[in-house]
Specification:
Length: about 350
Amino acid sequence: MSNILNLNQKQAKILKKNIKNFSLTELQIICEKLKIPKYKAKQIFSWIYKKGAKNFEQMSDIQKDIRLFFDNNFKISVFEKVESLNSDDGTIKYLFELSDKNVIETVVISSKKRKTLCISSQVGCKMACVFCASGMMKFKRNLDVAEIIEQIWYIKFIENIEIDNFVFMGIGEPFDNFDNIKNALQIMNDKNGFNIAARRITISTSGIVSGIEAIKNINLQINLAVSLHTANQAKRKSIMPIAEKYTITQLSRACKNYFEKTNRIITFEYMLLKGINDSKRDAFELANFAKDHKAKVNIISYNPAATSNKYLKVPNKVDINRFYNILVDKGVSVTVRNSKGNKIKAACGQLAGKIKI
Ligand code: SF4
């Protein structure tokens, strides 16, 4: 063990790294370099992600000098400043303050059958979709792997809430932070990590074609949701600036490639905006687009947010049913999302880091 202590001294100047930024493979490489048995990395990983260890001292089956080495060189971060808001429909919104005082939101959505965790991937968002409060927040930075992972860790071990499904639909565009999302997915899916089946994880994108092309190659059977909101290029450009960069034709090709490679059915999210994308013609265009991609459609009624465009209007139930029925008649697999958390501004498109700590 003197080896470890020597290296420890040599590395004394290195700042403590956050261990939640490291995958199991990366920890194993560190162990190998330090002549620590590789399986110790697995033990450490399990302590953090299966038993919820908050410090190395708790890892009682690991030798003291190894624990000391990790304690001298790594930290295990835990969100400290947290606020939460409960809605009467069972939704809970958490506001986490990050070490640089930026804030992100994470939402637990409960239904009779399951609990879903809505995870943020960035502080703010560059995509500026007109209907979304997150898009109106100034983009500050990407979340690192630890900050993504910690949202899950906190809900599991501090709140003691067992989550069934995990969706990257919080603040930010996940594919604009691709590498950190990819590494976070590995920790989520790792048997010694959270051990979450890939099929319980959904990534939602506004249509970053490069991200869709790249995610199909990581060999994880995750679900892909695409925020489509209209199948018409000109209209899409007017409500989602990302359509300037990636046209609907490019998006279509990427979705088809994804389906061909993974055989996973894509969901097209469609936020219904009264007078903008809710006409018969919009429904026909969407039906054709969805059928062409063998995709499902999820209709979401617009959720007004304080910071979003005041000209956007909420469709009524009649509008929603009319739109839904056209899709059903055309043979599209379609659902209408029962948006939860509206009262606490935790529904789709409403997250804006708003509660003050
Ligand atoms: S809908 Fe998604 S991609 Fe668009 S602004 Fe909001 S968080 Fe960003």
